[in-house]
Amino acid sequence: MFANFPGFLRFLVRRERMTSVIWLAAMSISAVVIASLFPGILPTEEAMQGMALTLNSPAMVAMMGPVYGLDALNPAIVMAEECLIWFGIASIIMNVFFINRHTRVDEELGRDEMLAALPTGRMTGATAAITGALALNIAISLLTFLLLSIFGIEGVTLSGSFVYAFSIGMTGFVFAAATLLFAQLFSTARGVTGAAFAFMGLSYIIRAYGDMSNSSVSLISPMGLGLKVEAFYSDRVWPIIILFIEGLVISAIALAICSVRDVGAGIIPAGKGKSHASRFLKSPLGLAWRLTRGGTIGWAIGMVAIGLSYGSVIGELETFVQGNDTIRMMLEGRGGASSLAEGYLAMLAAIMSLIAAIPLVLTVNRLHGEEKRGRMEQISALSIPRDRLLVAFTILAVIQAFAMPVLYVLGLYAAVGNTGILPFGMIMQASLAYIPALLLMVGLAVVLSGYAPKFISLIWAVFAFSFFTFYFGRLTELPEWVSHISPFDNIPQIPVEEFSAVPLVILCVIAAATFVAGFAGYKKRDLL
User: Fold this and answer.
1) Exposed, middle or buried: residue 176 (CB in 10 Å: 0-12, 13-18, 19+)?
2) What is the distance between the alpha carbons of residues 512 and 436, in angstroms, rounded to a whole number?
3) Which H/E stretch holds residue 329?
């Protein structure tokens, strides 16, 4: 059953020597950098109380989790209340992809059959995958704990650093185990990721309901349980222990199923498709839509929901920035705003454009995934120009570039429309201004698909850089030219700044050039 486990584990570590190291560094360093910023963001007791009161509103509790420690506030407590949920989500995403690519993806690509020809046990691969995930989560937790403890940030304690760091790691481990279970139930990698992220969404909803009602329901959710550590206040260890036990139990169930199922198959059989394809599905665009529609619909719903969530806190902005000049500066932007609501809108438009870029890039990158699985060879053998395949996925991504900001606006306006704080036209203009930046992100993904498909994941480095410069550029006083490397930083922040068409036109021209270059490169290069 477990023959040659050490060798298989070494092989897994070798495969992960880049990806997991990047995750390890990014997670731990980001936790420390963000924690170090909060003493400056919240310099006074009044500022901390204002932030805590805002976080304690029903909408913010649903979004970020329960508020605690109001009798002993310090920057570290507020940081944990605001950031732990997001680091937990990042850890979940990392673990879902980690387990999926070493289980179901390997089965789809035929790697497991090749490895099975060697003296390896039936459960060796799955056991190595969950062991590797546990080791990665512990490594991230330990490094985060050590870095937080070393730098002497105000309010950060040794015990608080421990529960904060290991809450992130053990939350991720539970979802790694859940993904391993889904890999036994479903027969496709897409089904596994869909089930894993659906479980994450359900866990988030259960946590939000339990936290809003101040009930023990949130303990059912791994995400809710992870937030019960109350880092830098009561520093509870028992939620971490329970999460670890849950991960072990789910892993044991998954491995038990793995021992009896057929390789390449899932316990739940794949549904049968239609006998005949529609005329639209027979076209490249129809095929691209069929492959991406599930994710597109999910992201569309998510954009509306996020707009509703952020819009629900607009009425509490004055409390949020009370006595906090740093937060006020971030909201008012570079050019100054006539109201906090306008500054908040400018900031939200930038945030949502960054989030909207994710499904666009995923859509373009889907073609590369189909290539890796050998499916595009069958399509390319037909009398269809190769570049039409990339054009089809690009068209869908461009449509999403226009649709996602509109969906966010509808959600935001649904939350603030009756208050009259922000007019619909202003919200729409602020959001649509970022479409050229979104188109450029699509263009960069197209160029990588056309010339360097093996390095297509570099597009996420552009995303991460843009995210960092927007969130921390002003606080860390980055040179302005560094920020302008990001396509999103060249967009006028409406309504804080005056509208200017010049940067938008320039970005559109560059995006068009990347489309043309990417199509030409894809037409000439060999398929993977």
Assistant:
1) buried
2) 10
3) helix 325-332
Which pLDDT tens digit goes with each residue over 38-69? 888 777 787 777 777 777 766 677 778 888 88
Mean pLDDT of 356-361: 90
Q: Are 390 and 450 contacting, i.e. CB atoms less than 8 angstroms apart? A: yes
Token output for 516: 């043309």
Give the type of residue at 288.
A
Contact 202, 129 (CB under 8 A): no
Which amino acid appears at position 490 of this protein? N
Maximal CA-CA distance, the chain: 71
What is the CB-side half-sphere exposure of residue 262 using CA atoms within 13 A? 7
Q: Is 249 helix (H, G, I), strand (E, B) or coil?
A: helix
* DSSP three-state, residue 17: coil
Tokens 């199509």 sit on residue: 519
Which one, of 299, 286, 289, lies nearest residue 406 by Cα?
299
Lowest mean pLDDT among 61-75, 124-138, 245-259: 61-75
Confirm if 112 and 125 have CB atoms less than 8 A apart.
yes
Single-letter code of the amino acid located at 260? V
Residue 436: the pLDDT is 93
Which residues have a Cβ under 8 Å from the Cβ of 164 and sit 6 or more positions away?
31, 80, 84, 144, 145, 148, 229, 231, 232
Rounded Cα–Cα distance for residues 264 and 113 (Å): 9
3-state secondary structure of 41: helix
CA distance 97 to 456: 16
Residue 495, preceding peptide bond in cis (omega within 30° of 0): yes
Per-residue pLDDT at 115: 67
Other CB atoms within a 10 A radius of the CB of residue 25 amount to: 12
Residue linked to tokens 């649904």: 414
- The one-letter code for the residue type at 525 is R
164 in Cβ contact with 147 (< 8 Å):
no
Contacts of 261 (CB under 8 A, 6+ apart): 184, 267
Contacts of 190 (CB under 8 A, 6+ apart): 294
Phi and psi at 428, nearest 5°, equal: -65, -45
**What's the CA gap between 94 and 126, in Å, rounded?**
17
Tokens of 164: 């904060």
